[in-house]
Amino acid sequence: SRSSTQQSSAADLLVVANRLPVDQVVEADGSTSWRPSPGGLVSALAPVMRRNQGAWIGWPGNAGEEMEPFEEDGLTLVPVALSEEEVAEFYEGFSNDTLWPLYHDLAAKPSFHREWWDSYVRVNQRFADAAAANAAEGATVWVQDYQLQLVPAMLRELRPDLRIGFYLHIPFPPAELFSQLPWRRQILEGLLGADLVGFQLSGAAQNFVRLVRQRVGHKTHRDTVYLPDGRVVRARAFPISIDTEGFEELAASEEVQARAAEIRRDLGNPRTLFLGIDRLDYTKGIHARLRAFSELIADGHLDVEDAVFVQVATPSRERVDQYRQLRDDIDQLVGRVNGDLGRIGRPAISYLHSSFPREEMAALYRAADVMVVTPFRDGMNLVAKEYVACRLDGDGALVLSEFAGAADELRQAYLVNPYDINGMKATMLEASRAQPKEVARRMRAMRKTVSEHDVSHWASTFLTSLAGDPESHTKQTHP
Ligand code: F6P
Known about the structure:
ten-stranded mixed β-sheet, Trehalose 6-phosphate synthase, Glyco_trans_20, alpha,alpha-trehalose-phosphate synthase (UDP-forming) activity, alpha/beta
């Protein structure tokens, strides 16, 4: 039952993700180069897959022609090409203007367009075909995230011999929201092609099982779905994490330490450096957090002579309207705040619309006294964990939204409701004025969590769970 697609390589472990770990960039002169892809998914999975010498199937990040598989840093990369139209309809449209806002508590209004759905189906089929063509007999295929929810069932149809896992990096919404989706049943059936469906939090796994019972009518018990053909599918939580050791080593390096000191110096050695680092996304709560900070200055609780907020916003999905609008809103807010409250050489907010290499991020984490992570909804938020990993001296305060998945594990953070501006103001102030002993007590507990549960723990727990459960192994069908 091999697919008819030509077999180009035969890997035992494959990741299928919307993005490759590297993006192709086309320069003005037409030459091309590669740079690391944005986002938490790639930064989490890349170290795991390099260690396992697996194959990675994904999109090179721009519209283009088909490309041959190639090797990069111990990994086989298999590019899946998308046309201009598919980038607009599958990626910017259905993935990021329908599913993204719907799965993030309607942080923006999702658009429903039938042509976008058709494109989503076609592109998911292309990823499934590529996975089928590159997997060895009995291989394990690990499908990633909301862009590819139909791939598990499509792949099982082509290759019933495979062990198929699926992991959702973003929240899975409650039934009341998910049910708006005109294609809700197809999505659920797509995911049920996997043997194991992983989520960040157990609440998300429960949402999924409940929807399967209600909308597809399968029998379920706790984390298990019983299909009419005897196959079982499990839905469980596997909170994702970071390469903790990698970040600790980076933060310990002399270059990073020197750079951290230089950053503080360049900012005029403020008493309190607040830091935000996010993709420029409306789910991240950047606007509300900067407003809270600026009000603390306007109210006289903080002074630009000794406090500054450094906000890094990584460009993201720039052709989607709501992202454009957000960029304008933040530009306007930062301009107004600095115009009204800044002094010469002392802006209230130091705003960087740019992406930086890991070294610079580690230096920023080391330089910051208070890290402010306030999404309205976030699957996990790895920035919060990276900050903790980089605080080698055990100091530094983390202000964290209770609506980030990370809040379930990092209980000792200064937790906030990002919709409550006054609450955020009070907590940011509390975090910046807390006794060093109190800050250290909280940080110590969080450092323990992040060092015990790193990304390789996450991956091995998922893969062990996928390999185990012998009674749930795929029924072999002999055509
Ligand atoms: O972690 C969630 C996620 O949407 C990933 O699937 C994605 O690769 C990353 O954020 C960055 O977004 P994008 O790939 O759209 O640039």
